[in-house]
Amino acid sequence: MIEIRDLKKTFGTHMAVDGISLSIKKGSVFGILGPNGAGKTTMMKVIVGLDRPTSGSVRIDGRDPAVRQTRESIGFMPESPSFYDHLTGLEFLTFCGSLFHTQAMKHHEYLDLLKRVGIFEAKDAPICTYSKGMRQRLAFAQAIVNDPAYLFLDEPLDGLDPIGRRELKSIITALQKKGTTIVFNSHILFDTEELCDEIGILHHGSLLYSGPIEAFTKGQPLEERFVSVIQHLS
Amino acid sequence: MPASLHTILVVAKNTFRETIRNKVLYAILAFAAVYMLFTLFLGSISLGEDLHVIRSLGLAGMYIFGLIITIFLGSSLLYKELERRTLYFVLSKPISRAHLVLGKFLGLLSSVAVCLAGMTVLYLLMVAFKGGGFDSSAILAVFYQLLEMSLLIALTIFFSTFSMPLLSTLYAVLVVYIGHSLDLLMQAVQGASAPVRFFVQLLHYVLPNLAKFDIRSAIIYDASVPLSQALLVVAYAAMYVGLLLCVAVFLFEKREI
User: Fold this and answer.
1) I want to staple A141 with a disulfide (CB 3.0 to 4.6 A). Which of A117, A173, B218, B256 is the partner?
2) Cβ contact (<8 Å) for A86 and B17?
3) How far apart are CA B95 and CA A180, in angstroms?
């Protein structure tokens, strides 16, 4: 379970995350929605331990994500990922996998993972030759290289073609069935509606809503309801 | 193997791969090779002093090109990761920032060592070709040089925790220049006013005295280098590297990414 209590993150005088409290159930798929600059990425960076909160706390299974051991069970895919361009896809994935101690993969498992995300053919090509969609797939692969119990995805479907989106969504669904807790930020509300059990809506760093999609949409399409709520506040 | 050491070595291996495949590095090495071969020509027009010229210019060339490689690769090492956010991949894994800094240091040191080894082989072949036999003493000079480069790598990593690559390069070049002139500076200010002497003394204590790593002249003139001196220089380099990396880790820990 992920427990976020009165989380605040400021950058100078700017309050990026403003007192968010939230619980995300184990095994659920939770979507964080919000307009640009709402604080989604900042909140995710704090949850995975990349940034420290200004105040408040985050606990994953009762443990602080700033502690290294907690991150053994976390997978994170950043938004618009940037890579070590001189490495090949396989080398990069092996590097990421080798940073884990308890779930280190064998060579053939890395190859299987590259097959699973659809970039096996390009495994020995330098990453600088990859298209945006291939980079997105590689970033997804490194996020699940440790078979994480908690997977955090920041705009995972951004830049993917329809086939790529469908493939990644099917992997996300398979992970959910396996019991992985998945938290993701997305601007693509159609995908969010399709994948998520629950959503959280952020606006100017504050949490407007948290709970099941149906309770928020009240029979309307998610996109329509989301836009009307945000426009009403702006 | 302890988990921490394993993590550091994984980062070091990755850094080595990433830096050794940098195309600019090969351009610098090609330039170094051309320069080294050119010393053969310079030796041939030096009226019987060809071996002396080759040894002197060869060791100096290895130092200059080693320095260029070290500063070029070191000054952008951490900054590039921060700027391009590749650190998000690494630091979301079970790794501390201290492990990352140490891994980066070891990885770049390995790359610089491989480049120096390549240049040393070329140098040794040239000296042997000119009838100088196996110049084993040059290996000691290169070892001293590697110690200096390790210190400079730590220095550039320290600078890159808070400044842009261009500024890090500038700071590093300044430290190299002053670091090799500290003894001369101390002599020059002996008759100067108290504030000037205090300032130079401060520099002398704070900045690394890089002249300690320069035994090229001694090697060229076949003077012996006592073992006790070598051990002191190793300890001096280790102390400075340790100190710089500790401060770099401290600053890096404080930094928002």
Assistant:
1) A117
2) yes
3) 22
